[in-house]
Amino acid sequence: MKQYNFDDIIERKGSDCFKWDALPSMYGRDDLLPMWVADMDFRSPDFVMDAIRHRCEHEVLGYTMPSEGYWQAVESWLERRYGINTTNGELHFIPGIVAGIAYALLCFTNPGDKVLVTTPVYPPFLNLPKESGRMLVCSQLKIENGRFAIDFDDFEQKVDGCKMFIMSNPHNPAGTVWGADVLRHIADICKRHNVIVISDEIHADLTLSPHKHVSYSTVSDDARSNSITFMAPSKTFNIAGLGSSVCYIADEALRKRFFGWLDALGVAGGNIFAFTAAEAAFANGEEWLRQMLDYLKENVLALQAFLNDRLPKVKAVLPEASYLAWLDFSDYGIPHKELADKLINEARVALNDGTTFGGSDYECCFRINLGCPKSMLLDALNRIAGVFQTTK
Ligand SMILES: Cc1ncc(COP(=O)(O)O)c(C=O)c1O
């Protein structure tokens, strides 16, 4: 069995890589260890790179289309892993999930309509409704036993009058895996209130054992009938720069309306490398993914051990899926601006600022990305401890 190496440090600076090369514009300096943007510092898998190289041997890069092999690889992946049967045209290619959510917002809601999210959440979920003139409604998650949980009393109150609920399943930040009961409860409430549920499942494949991802539409008839699900190989195989995702809709009426809109937008043609890479990844990726998830799990444990040992005042929500953890520095009693300044200008690490996930309630929180060689993670944690261990 081939052993993949996730310890190698790969120089990404200078490759027009957002995580490393946007540091000066985003943080004002370029000497930071970037633990922010949600991609991984691991090599993209060899079988994906080989497929892209092979395709490049043909020297015409004209308009393309998804091949039968591409659809088979996607369908088989969804069936095997999540029990979703999609052999009757329930899938549509989309370039990216943020774009997909934007298309859904434009298709199913009007300016002024209310759109629900649960905070803290991936920032585009906040920005898309706001910037498109919808009314953003936020239901705050609670922290129970060190994990995020939905406050269903608040959720049910807030969902009233909304047209759409945008859900991160698993949840970003901190990879909370929503169980079938929670999803069924959401489906029940949203169906009663006539709310379309967007289930963004981009992190699903990265669910860490013993947790198990449950795809929203599979939990009940209500969920099947009111949902639009997005999935992608982009986080799973570290190929986010290729713009390759899929949309799944079980309900025929919803599907006809949305897929018609996507075709009108002209996004179905995709791009050559998006299809080539996704097919290679889904067809050959099980073993690479298994080894990579083992590695990620070690990184989560390393973070947990480090915090217990060296930074016990930092409270964490650790990922059950994917590689993003939520760190709360509020026990230091330091104002937001000063906290951010310490992390950037003293510790020299770039974390995501909690306020971007839902405003001033998260001023003491930061998201850290663990999708990197362990030595890099420990370097970042040592830098943080170097500043905060001595901070009372
Ligand atoms: C929940 C979630 N949705 C969507 C995205 C981005 O998806 P895409 O690059 O396909 O637009 C991310 C990236 O971090 C994410 O965490």
Q: What small molecules are bound in this structure?
A: pyridoxal-5'-phosphate
Helix-residue proportion: 40-55%
Give the overall silhouette. Answer: globular
CATH C-level category of the largest domain: Alpha Beta
Distance between the termini: 50 Å
Structural class given helices, strands, pairing?
Answer: alpha/beta
CATH superfamily caption of the largest domain: Type I PLP-dependent aspartate aminotransferase-like (Major domain)
Weakly predicted, low-confidence segments:
none
Main beta sheet strand tally, sense and closure: 7 strands, mixed
| CATH architecture title of the largest domain | 3-Layer(aba) Sandwich
Adjacency order of strands in the biggest sheet: 2-10-9-8-7-3-4
Number of distinct beta strands: 15
Task: Quote the average pLDDT.
Answer: 97
Task: Give the tags.
Aspartate Aminotransferase, domain 2, alpha/beta, 392 residues, Aspartate Aminotransferase, domain 1, 16% strand, globular, four-stranded antiparallel sheet, 14 helices, 15 strands, binds pyridoxal-5'-phosphate
